[in-house]
């Protein structure tokens, strides 16, 4: 694996990136490197500077010191963490995908089909579920025919089965297009198995390596606590509340505003 | 039709056609209070125009643009919420404008006409100004339409995709400043924002995509102007407020129209 990576083109390389915001140190001498066709996942607790590091790489904020080198003519597809579109703006998926550039109908359908969202072409953006929104965002990133995909918490707001599907999809895209992928996740359990390298970030890079080696790394343990390691098989379970409880614990019906009945 | 009436109608339509599509962005980007602030500052522009003896329209545009730049600079430095900042600038510039006008004792200015518009007194020169500015503003708006929409939906995503965000935002501010300068004649400083947001908000009921919303907003603005002028003539109402009330009437009746349209389809 390592020797293989040596021959591959480096897409991103940062050296000693430091950044302070409002006098608070957010990034401290961060070095990362990402090769073509490689998936690197950034993990770390809230406020560890994951999103900030990605924003520095994207050129959205300037680092105080250190170097960020991107491969020349690198085409980046970016999937932001959150997308909320006000209902006052009437916008279909088709229109959303063509905001950055005009493109042909066939290309649109191809991109949506790749992410399994081809039926959504004429849906209003505001009617999409969390998982559907993420897929459409991914399609928009793919339309740029990127050498590098940067995904900020791509499975956020998606239920567990959906998360699994999305990670699988990201793995497939890497295989088919051979692009590098830099991804943020805040949970090592959720880090997809296809990840080549995990970087544990807490202002500085605590540890890095293959997911299995990071899981037993002392600095990872210090950061996330040993309980997490003892029970690595537990799949985080989350569910959408469709009812609330009153003070006695009885179920109170609410207006079901978030439910979609199909 | 009388000459003054034709001029009034043309002036109103000219402003409505550009205020509609631009108003759509004001609504999408939640800039209603921003528009209000620039409009209030316009009075200062009028005063400066008189004091320094140059075109008042130009004075208004210059003051509005300067204020917009000041606002952007203050947003980045201050810890105050946006609406607080806007409130401070809005009322202080309006007051400064009123004081500046009060100083000009030698010049008699009809303050009411600036505050609430005097569309029936529109001159041929005013008409040229309105149409020249409307044409310019529409051309710029169409040119920056796609990038402007892209940053409205998600600014950082647009920036990563290569949209020159700062320039596009500056262009939008400039457009709003220009429209305020010409709309002042029609509905006056205190009512300008209504011409931007009411037609656009009404158009939302009927529109399926952003472009439709912009075009409908222009049309609804035209109907509001015509209706308001008619009412003003028929019942001797002040023209500016009559236009705003007629726009509001369209807004409140829009859901009703929509219902009627849907029930017809079902039959």
List the helices and strands and how they pair.
The complex is a heterodimer of chains A (262) and B (267).
Chain A: H1 2-7, E1 10-21, E2 24-35, E3 39-43, H2 50-58, E4 65-70, E5 76-79, H3 93-97, H4 105-114, H5 130-142, E6 148-152, H6 160-177, E7 180-184, E8 197-202, E9 204-209, H7 211-215, H8 218-224, H9 227-230, E10 244-245, E11 251-252
Parallel strand pairs in A: 3-7, 3-8, 5-6, 6-7
Antiparallel strand pairs in A: 1-2, 1-4, 8-9, 10-11
Helix pairs in contact in A: 4-5
Chain B: H1 3-28, H2 32-51, H3 56-77, H4 82-103, H5 111-116, H6 124-143, H7 145-153, H8 155-160, H9 165-187, H10 192-204, H11 210-235, H12 239-266
Shape of chain B: globular
Average predicted confidence as pLDDT of chain B: 88
Specify the CATH architecture of chain B.
Orthogonal Bundle
Strand order of the largest sheet of chain A: 5-6-7-3-8-9
- Please count the beta strands of chain A (DSSP E, at least 2 residues each): 11
Under CATH, the homologous superfamily of the domain at 2-75 and 146-252 in chain A reads P-loop containing nucleotide triphosphate hydrolases
Strand content bin of chain B: under 5%
Give Rg of chain A in angstroms: 20 Å
Q: Structural class from helices and strands of chain A? A: alpha/beta
């Amino acid at each position: 694996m390592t020797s293989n990576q040596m021959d591959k083109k480096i897409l991103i390389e940062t050296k000693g990136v430091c950044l302070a915001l409002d006098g608070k140190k957010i990034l401290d001498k961060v070095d990362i490197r990402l090769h073509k066709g490689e998936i690197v996942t950034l993990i770390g607790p809230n406020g560890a500077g994951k999103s900030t590091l990605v924003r520095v790489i994207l050129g959205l904020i300037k680092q105080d010191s250190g170097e960020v080198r991107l491969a020349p003519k690198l085409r980046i597809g970016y999937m932001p963490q959150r997308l909320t579109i006000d209902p006052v703006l009437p916008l279909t998926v088709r229109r959303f995908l063509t905001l950055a550039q005009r493109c042909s109908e066939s290309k649109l359908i191809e991109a949506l089909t790749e992410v399994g969202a081809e039926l959504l072409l004429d849906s209003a953006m505001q009617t999409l579920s969390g998982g559907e929104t993420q897929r459409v965002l991914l399609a928009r990133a793919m339309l740029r025919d990127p050498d590098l995909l940067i995904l900020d918490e791509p499975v956020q707001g998606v239920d567990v089965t959906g998360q699994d599907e999305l990670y699988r999809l990201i793995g497939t895209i890497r295989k088919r297009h051979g692009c590098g992928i830099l991804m943020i996740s805040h949970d090592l359990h959720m880090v997809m198995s296809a990840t080549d390298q995990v970087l544990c970030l807490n202002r500085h890079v605590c540890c890095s390596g293959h997911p299995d080696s990071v899981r037993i790394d002392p600095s990872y343990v210090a950061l996330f606590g040993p309980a997490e390691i003892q029970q690595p098989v537990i799949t985080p379970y989350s569910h959408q509340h469709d009812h609330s409880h009153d003070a006695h614990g009885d179920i109170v019906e609410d207006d079901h505003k978030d439910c979609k009945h199909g | 039709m009388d000459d003054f009436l034709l001029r009034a109608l043309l002036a109103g339509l000219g402003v409505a056609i550009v205020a509609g599509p631009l108003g759509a962005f004001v609504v999408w980007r939640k800039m209603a209070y921003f528009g209000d602030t620039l409009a209030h500052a316009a009075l200062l522009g009028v005063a400066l125009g008189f004091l320094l003896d140059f075109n008042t329209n130009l004075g208004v545009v210059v003051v509005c643009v300067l204020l917009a730049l000041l606002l952007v600079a203050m947003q980045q430095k201050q810890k105050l919420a946006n609406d607080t900042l806007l409130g401070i600038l809005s009322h202080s510039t309006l007051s400064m404008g009123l004081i500046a006008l009060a100083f000009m004792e030698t010049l008699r200015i009809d303050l009411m006409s600036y505050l609430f518009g005097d569309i029936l007194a529109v001159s041929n020169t005013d008409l040229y100004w309105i149409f020249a500015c409307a044409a310019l503003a529409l051309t710029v708006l169409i040119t920056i339409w796609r990038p402007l929409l892209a940053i409205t939906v998600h600014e950082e995503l647009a920036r990563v995709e290569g949209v020159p965000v700062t320039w596009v935002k500056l262009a939008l501010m400039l457009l709003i400043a220009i429209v305020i300068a010409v709309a002042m004649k029609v509905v006056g400083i205190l009512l300008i924002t209504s011409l931007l947001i009411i037609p656009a908000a009404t158009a939302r009921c009927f529109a399926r995509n952003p472009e439709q919303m912009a075009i409908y907003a222009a049309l609804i603005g035209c109907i509001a102007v015509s209706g308001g002028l008619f009412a003003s003539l028929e019942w001797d109402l002040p023209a500016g407020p009559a236009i705003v009330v007629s726009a509001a009437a369209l807004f409140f009746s829009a859901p009703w129209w929509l219902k009627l349209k849907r029930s017809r389809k079902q039959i």
